[in-house]
Amino acid sequence: MKSYIHISTTTETREEAQKIAQYLLERKLAACVQLSGPITSIYRWKGRVETATEWLCLIKTREDLFEEVEATIKNLHSYETPEIIAVPIVKGSKEYLKWLNKETADIKT
Questions:
Q1: pLDDT of residue 109
Q2: Is the pLDDT of residue 4 over 80?
Q3: Residue 99 has pLDDT above 50, yes or no
Q4: Is the peptide bond between 38 and the residue preceding it cis, with omega within 30 degrees of 0?
Q5: In angstroms, how far is CA 12 from the centroid of its own chain?
Q6: To 10 degrees, what angle do helices 66-76 and 14-26 make?
Q7: Closest by alpha carbon to 41, among 84, 12, 80?
Q8: pTM higher than 0.70, yes or no?
Q9: Angstrom distance (rounded) from CA 21 to CA 73
């Protein structure tokens, strides 16, 4: 049985978020990427508290595609250390998970 994950990342601009989403979808590394924003992020960076306006990408994919998604985000992202966090999808409707599986690449491991 395949495992599914939800990956989140944030970007500085809507255009960058759309570029990452489009790339992932065109290569079937994700079945869906939802973009939300602008959002306000408050975080510690290099010893200081920073505030930034960002765009949130919520990526639905299979766990076995994580490394390719991670590499893609790192390659296309403008941040020195982009957020790339995956959480498991522990339950989902049978139909949705079937669709998610169908819409992502079938890689050979």
A1: 43
A2: yes
A3: yes
A4: yes
A5: 14
A6: 140
A7: 12
A8: yes
A9: 9
Element (H, E) at 40: strand 32-45
Domain limits at 32?
4-102
CATH code for the domain of 34: 3.30.70.120
Total domains present in the chain = 1
Question: Considering the domain boundaries, does residue 107 fall inside one?
Answer: no
In this structure, are residues 30 and 60 in contact, taking their beta carbons and an 8 Å threshold? yes
**What's the chain's length in residues?**
109
H or E stretch at 99: helix 94-102
Position 105 scores a pLDDT of 76
| pLDDT tens-digit map of 80-98 | 999 999 999 999 999 999 9
Instruction: In whole angstroms, give the CA distance from residue 51 to residue 59.
Output: 24
CA distance 56 to 40: 10
Instruction: Let me know: does 27 contact 51? Beta carbons within 8 Å.
Output: no
Which candidate, 4, 56, 54, 53, places its Cα nearest to that of 30? 4
List, for residues 7-24, the tens digit of each pLDDT value: 999 999 999 999 999 999
